[in-house]
What does this fold into?
Amino acid sequence: MGIIPFVYYIFDYMCTKFSNLLYSGNKAVVEFMGFASCLAYLTFLLIYFKEYERKQQIRQYSDLTKMQLLSIQKEIEQVKLSEQKIAILRHDMRHHLNHISMLAEENDMEALKTYLAQTVSRIPDLDMHFCENRAADSVLGYYCALAKREGIPFSAQIDLPQTLPVDEIDMCLVLSNLLENALEASLRTVPARRWMKVNAYVHAERLLLMQVENEYGYYANDREYLLAMKDKMQKGGVVVPLVTSDGPFEENLNGGHLEGTLPTGNFGSKTEERFDVLKKYTDGGPLMCTEFWVGWFDHWGNGGHMTGNLEESVKDLDKMLELGHVNIYMFEGGTNFGFMNGSNYYDELTPDVTSYDYDALLTEDGQITEKYRRYRDVIAKYREIPEVTFTTEIKRKAYGSLPLKEKVSLFSVLDDISAPVESSFPQSMEKLGQNYGYILYHSTLDTEEKLEKLRLWEANDRANIFVDQKPVTTLYDLELLKEKELDVTFERGADFDILMENMGRVNFGPRMEHQRKGIGQCVQINGHMHNRWRQYTLPLDNIEKVDFSKEYKEGLPGFYRFTVDIDETADTFLNFEGWGKGCVFVNGFNIGRFWEIGPQKRLYIPAPLLKKGENEIIVFETEGKTCETIVLKNEPDIG
It folds into this structure.
C-alpha cells in the first residue's frame, strides 16, 4: 500500500492548482481540471480496491495453508504418538492374550465372551479419512478436530475424487468458509442442539437437462404448483436448463408449460403436425420430442402383446431428427421385477404385466432387434456412428422341465412368515406398515347364520374369499365397489379369510389419490359390519421362512418348491402354462407376477440370478391351479 501516500500527494497538489485556476476565470481550464480531478480520484479508488482484493486473497491462501500445515502437524504428532502407543499396545496385547488363554483353558466361555466384548468396546475409532482429495481431506480433518474439541457432533458424507473438475484452492476456500460458519453457528447454540453435518460430491458432469414435470398438462393446470417445483429445483442447486414435457396439444401445453422452461412434447406419431403445435410455445427455441413412444406397455388381459408400426415409426424418427431432437421411450424397457409394476385407471384397473418389453429397440433381455437396426440407419444420416464391438455375449438356455419337490399351503405357514396384528376393523396395508404384496384378513363367523351378502369397503385391488378354508368367490377392481350376493352355509364359528393382493399402484390421473391397498374401512356381511380381525401382512420378503414340512391342502393358496442344477448360467424363461396366478422367487429374488389370462406367458430369469450348482425356484400361487412341473425355455413369450 506504499503507493497510497504518493497518490494522495498528487491529488492534493492537483486540487490546489485547480483552486488557483478556478480564480483565474479560464473556463476551458476549469472544465478540464474538473474532469482530470475526477479521473484521478477514480484511478485512486481502483488502485486501492485492487490492492485490498489482492491482500484479502493472500490472507485467504495463507489461512488455507496454515490449516493444511496444522493438519499435517497433527498427523506427524499422531504418528509420534502412535509409535509410543504401539509399544504400550504390545504390552497390553501380551496381557490380553494371556488372560484369554487362561479363560479358554478353564473352558469359561461366558467369561471369555464378556472379556472380549469389553476389550473391543475400549478400542477407539481413529478413522479421520474423509475423501481421496488431499486438500479437502485436510480442511475436513481440521474442522472435525475443532468440532470434537468443542463437543459438537460432526458427520460427513464426502465423495470427492483425488482430482477435481474445479480449482482445488477455490473449492477448499468455499468448504472452509462453510464449515467455519457452521462451527460459529453451533457455538452460539445451546449444547443439546449443536451439530455439524457436511455432504459433498461432484455434480454429474454430463447432465444436460432437468424436467420440472411429466405430462402435467394431461393431469391438471395448477400454475402455482409448477412454479413451486421449479423453485425447489433451482434452490436445490440445479443449474442446467429446465424443460416441461406434455401432450402435443394446445390444451395440454397451456396447462403444463412454464415460463423460463423449454416446453417439449410426448408422442409417437405425426411428428410434423405435433412440432407445428409445439412451435407456438417454444418462442423460437429448439423442438424436442421428450418421449418418442416406439411401442406401448401391456396390461394383464389386454389380448396380446402391443407393438407399433415399424415403417411409420422409422419415418417419424427421421422427421424428428430433421426438425428437432428426440429422446426414445423406450430404448430398452426391461422388467417389472418383484411387485414394482404400475397400473393405469381409466374405466377400469389395468395393471402392467411383469415384462416391460414395450416393443423397444432392445428386448427385455437386451437382444438387438430389427427396430434397433432401422433406427441406427436413420440416425446415421444426421450423425456419424462409430463401429462398436460388443464385449458381452447374452446367452439364452433352455434348462428343461423341473419336477415339483415340495409344497405347503399358505394357511399352514402364516405364523412363520408374518406376525398378526389384531383390530376391531380391518386396516389397509399402509396403516400396517406394508407397501407391496399381499395381506390376509382372518376372522371367525360367530354371529352369522349364513353368508348371503358381502361387501368390502375401500378395498383394493383383488380379493380371494375363503370360508372354512374353502374358496367362496374372487372380487376384482369394480366388483369391490358393490355388494356381492352369495349362498354359503357353515357352522357357527367358521374361519373367514380374505386374501387381498396389491396389483400395482395407479401412477396417473385422479385415482393416484386413492391408492391404499387391502381393506381400508370395513367388511359388511349380510348388511352389518363384521368386527374382530387378525391381519397378516405378506410382502413375501422372507420367503426363506416358508416351512415345507407343514400341511398342504389342494385348491388353496400355496408355495411350490423346485430346484435345478446347472453347469453354465444363462438367461432363461419360465413357462407358467397350467398355473393360475401368483409370483415366482429365484434363489430368493422375486422375478415378478404371472397370470394365466396373459398376454405374457413366460417370466424372464436373468443369468446373474442363477449360480452354478443347485438353484431354488419357489412359486406362490393363489388360485389353487397348479402343475407338477415348470419348464425353463430359451425363448421369451410375451404374447
